[in-house]
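Write out the bound-state structure for adenosine-5'-triphosphate.
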Amino acid sequence: MDGLITGISGPTVTAKIGGVKLCDMVLVGHAGLVGEVVRLEGEQAVVQVYENTLGLGVGEPVVGTGGQLTVTLGPGLVSTMYDGLQRPLERVRAAVGPFIRPCRDIPPLDTAAEWRFEPDRKAGDEVGAGEVIGRIREGAFVHLITAPVPGRLGEVRSGSCTLAEPVAHYEDGSGIFALQKWPVRRPRPFRRKLPPVLPLVTGQRVIDFLFPMVRGGTAIFPGGFGTGKTILEQTIAKFADADLVVYVGCGERGNEMAELLEEFRTLKDQRTGASLLSRTIVVVNTSNMPVAAREASIYTAVTIAEYYRDLGLHVLLLADSISRWGEALREISSSLEEMPGEEGYPTYLSSRLAAFFERAGAVETLNGAIGSLTMILSVSPPGGDFSEPVTQACLRTTGVFLMLDAALAHSRHYPAINWAQSYSLYAAGVTGHFTARVAPAWGEMQQRCRELLQREETLREVAEIVGAEGLQDGDRLLMMTTERIRNEFLCQNAYGDDAFCAPERTAAKMGAILALHDRAEAGLKQGLSLDEALAGGA
Ligand SMILES: Nc1ncnc2c1ncn2[C@@H]1O[C@H](COP(=O)(O)OP(=O)(O)OP(=O)(O)O)[C@@H](O)[C@H]1O
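---
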């Protein structure tokens, strides 16, 4: 399966090569750049190259690998920062310096590191495909080492091992390794999908209280330039109630990713007290990296997330921003001279995004455990126009829509989530959970809060005409209460002690605001003036 480059157009390369299939991974040029076959016409293959093609020449070799683009999965993924092709960036920097260039000899997982293998099965046991034969502990996570094919075990090790050597052998001498490779475009299998009903606490009051997330759900927050997308993604990454966080920096600034890593190293996980990095995997494809590799980074990240989900964990995938992936699809599609769809995006944009969102969910794994993969993705609509194709395509498939409002951001109301336009399709189910477990009045308070904010919307128009003084005392009280809701409840400074708010405190805060409102309202009914009613109620 060797061929030759016949043409190059940016990241798209045509090659004369036989025996390759669609989506096969090929190595392009003398440098062995990683690419994927995206079109086949007889012996002519069109290859999408995920690395910088600068200096690549016609006539250079193209070598088929006989398989698809894969990720390597196993112990050692956690705390690592990868690029879209799963190169461990810190080890690459140590080897070749800060400017990454193709280097195939640095494996994604450190094959020299020692792990402790605890066998579940012994020599002579008959095992089925996918059956667990032992486990390796990586910090708080337990990796299940499974048999790739059915057979009888000839030898099973116990104790110290590296990823380079087999932890067990079949009777025919073939080895079973603790690491496995999985094609990124193929969703990992599970026994069955479960309805996502358990809340995912983010620690952001506006989300947990008004637009709750569930484990296994999907959320997007579109917002124009500077509306706080990155800060919101990072705050959720720090405080969300997930076992593991996979954070994808897709086409964003490199310095933001560097700061994030530095912060994660020093910050502690609320639940375990360990460093936040010990529950985080970062996949970066910063704005200066090849655009086409954004496609690879998204799929690499989701496959890693699925692998940890299959260990029975609640995994949260955060991507900032999904629009940069959309832009990459547009660029790739135009270099392939495909028929453009809306605004130049490929016609398959919606189906590609929908298939990606389908990989989220709560599942019963093949081993009978319950795991979930939740996705919270930021969207950067150009010019803050939410009618653009990527936002619209995401809207059709996501359960939570958090609209970041430029006007709120300009008035420094953060997180700038517009409470009138956003929604959560999971709210009904999750409210019951919070009502039963956190505060009996949760559902009722949520309802009242929504009503107050809605009534304020109407009153605001009246107040603009007659002035606040022209309003009746009852209406002025309502305006005062909603101002408190907005400033003290919906606003949350990501840099202070208030960055995380547990559901109990969220309920207490809302309870206090509503109690004050009720006392003052009762005072008004008894004929007190607003000032007297507020003083009496305070
Ligand atoms: N919760 C918050 N608390 C305090 N400040 C915030 C909060 N969210 C955002 N900000 C402020 O808003 C600024 C812009 O936020 P951020 O960089 O996340 O926006 P963005 O939407 O990702 O921008 P871009 O479109 O450039 O990627 C931050 O530098 C910060 O000062």
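---
Residues 79 and 277 are 5 Å apart (CA to CA).
The mean pLDDT is 90.
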